[in-house]
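Structure (tokenized):
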């Protein structure tokens, strides 16, 4: 086990390079199950979640290697169609293998993911989507068992905009007989990237990045290489780090147009931004102004930036309201931020934040990926030393975070720790 030891109070300065998008990789990898062969996916991040997905793909018979940022996947010898609980419980995105396995092999047995740190995360939309494409689904001692001789196109309209369910249904539909229309589809860049990858593999997809995606099924697909998109949440996390700790940070190799909701909120909070084609340069505000945020599906303010935003507002000059409309109970970071001296009250899915003049270092506990990010950011600005325990949560979604933050002036060390 490791913890981060952070000595706060240092301004940030310099350039930090964003890695490939975790939430795109986790969809691109299972898409390679749709056609046997060898794939090369560049700009792949070296993350715990990516290695978990690699292990899952290997239990199915694929071979996955990562050399630098280029991932090579060989799905020629896929012969097992079951995603075991031991892997799925570690990472909910494992359910992404359901659609491709049913579409290509007519069978899939995927463990139900169970809950996560902040409560239940249902997969009903994934299951209903598969059924609409003609799959027979049964639940058998914690596993989803899906069977289909041949999937057939159908009309699906999601009650809730779901990134994962959109991706899963799209991957199933590309080999179904006939046309599939997905209504209230997710617009997230990671789903657009998945769709672009499927199109390079020969799929016929229209409407990517709009609420209605239409898929014309084809009889077979072929392997193709792909360059992954930059991680917009990693980029956003570094921008908030700069605004919070002070100084000037250049976030390079990002896609600014994937960040517009966050960028306008950062400007409202007083940050000065220079927005380039593939970079955003942020000059921290003298004083952090209080700015309300309400999360929404893309292109709204991302729920994956909610925890980091609360850390920023904890040091603002006034009061702000941060509502999470995607996950109503994603506030496990709040009690830990309070340990650092933040003044926050949560009522249902809304955090009421009163900015304080200073945060004070303390020992705090990571509970999930983005919560741990908010604690690290708060530690950058807290007086004295902050210890963030259970950093394996961070390693799921941030590549070498202490090296990247250290590279722009943070005093942060990864230290062995027996503390749980
Ligand atoms: C993706 O999760 C991301 N993960 C999450 O990022 C992100 O928080 C989430 O989208 C929302 O943007 C990956 O892409 C691997 P959803 P996903 O289905 O697909 C409800 C991170 O930090 N819902 O868009 O699981 C659900 O409860 C992770 O990188 C159903 O009701 O999210 C939620 O309220 C955390 N039934 C809403 O939809 C379903 O079958 C959006 O969830 C599926 C979802």
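Design, position by position:
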């Amino acid at each position: 086990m490791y913890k981060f030891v952070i000595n706060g109070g240092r301004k940030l300065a310099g350039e930090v390079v964003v890695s490939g998008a975790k939430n795109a990789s986790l969809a691109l990898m299972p898409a390679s199950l749709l056609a046997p062969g060898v794939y090369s996916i560049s700009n792949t991040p070296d993350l715990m979640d990516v290695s978990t997905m690699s292990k899952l793909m290997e239990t199915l018979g694929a071979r996955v290697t990562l050399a630098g940022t280029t991932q090579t996947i060989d799905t020629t010898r896929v012969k097992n169609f079951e995603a075991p609980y031991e892997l799925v419980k570690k990472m909910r995105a494992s359910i992404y293998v359901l659609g491709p396995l049913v579409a290509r092999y007519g069978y899939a047995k995927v463990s139900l993911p169970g809950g996560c740190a902040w409560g239940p995360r249902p997969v009903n939309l994934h299951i209903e989507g598969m059924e609409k494409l003609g799959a027979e689904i049964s639940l058998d001692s914690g596993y989803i068992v899906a069977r289909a001789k041949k999937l057939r196109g159908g009309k699906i309209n999601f009650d809730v905009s779901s990134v994962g369910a959109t991706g899963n249904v799209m991957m199933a539909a590309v080999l179904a007989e006939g046309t599939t229309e997905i209504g209230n589809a997710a617009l997230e860049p990671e789903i657009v990237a998945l769709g672009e990858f499927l199109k390079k593999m020969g799929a016929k997809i229209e409407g990517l990045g709009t609420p209605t995606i239409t898929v014309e099924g084809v009889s077979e697909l072929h392997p193709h290489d792909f360059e992954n998109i930059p991680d917009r949440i990693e980029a956003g996390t570094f921008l908030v780090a700069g605004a919070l700790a002070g100084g000037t940070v250049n976030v390079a190799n990002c896609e600014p147009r994937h960040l517009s909701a966050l960028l306008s909120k950062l400007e409202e909070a007083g940050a000065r931004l220079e927005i380039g084609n593939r970079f955003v340069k942020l000059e921290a505000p003298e004083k952090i102004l209080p700015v309300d945020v309400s999360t929404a599906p893309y292109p709204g303010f991302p729920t994956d930036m909610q925890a980091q935003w609360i850390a920023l507002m904890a040091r603002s000059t006034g009061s702000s309201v941060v509502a999470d409309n995607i996950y109503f109970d994603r506030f496990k970071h709040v009690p830990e931020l309070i340990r650092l001296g933040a003044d926050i009250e949560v009522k249902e899915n809304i955090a009421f934040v009163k900015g304080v003049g200073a945060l004070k270092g303390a020992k705090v506990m990571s509970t999930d990926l983005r919560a741990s990010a908010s604690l690290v950011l708060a530690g950058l600005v807290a007086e004295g030393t902050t210890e963030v325990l259970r950093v394996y949560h961070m390693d799921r979604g941030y590549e070498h975070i202490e090296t990247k933050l250290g590279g722009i002036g943070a005093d942060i060390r990864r230290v062995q720790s027996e503390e749980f």
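Reviewer-requested clarification: The pocket of EPZ is lined by residues 22-23, 26, 92-93, 121-126, 160, 162-165, 190, 303-304, 326-327, 369-370, 397 (CB under 6 Å). The chain has a mean pLDDT of 96.
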